[in-house]
Design a protein that fits this description.
about 50% helix, mainly alpha, about 90 residues
């Protein structure tokens, strides 16, 4: 594993903290990692299904993954939070 630093809006972190226990996570950071992993795996699957290739891609890597835009669960959380639809 590697350590990274991310700037995340305060309201998104608050939402993660609120939702984590409902999803069975003790720590909101673990929920965030799960959301990132889910979105990445979904994009990788979509790329394979559309003939995007098996490489991981990226600038200068020689890979040929097609870039596919999907809303990450964190984006959905933000939309729900803005709309006031967070679980109580």
């Amino acid at each position: 594993m590697t350590t990274i630093t991310m700037r995340i809006p305060v309201d998104v972190v608050a939402s993660l903290k609120q939702i984590a226990p409902h999803k069975g996570f003790t720590w909101y950071q673990t929920l965030l990692k799960s959301y990132i992993s889910e979105g990445l795996r979904r994009d990788e699957t979509e790329a394979r299904c559309t003939g995007g290739g098996a490489g991981r891609g990226g600038a200068g890597s020689g890979g040929n993954l097609k870039r596919v835009a999907f809303p990450l669960p964190a984006d959905i959380l933000m939309q729900n939070h803005i709309g006031g639809n967070l679980p109580s």
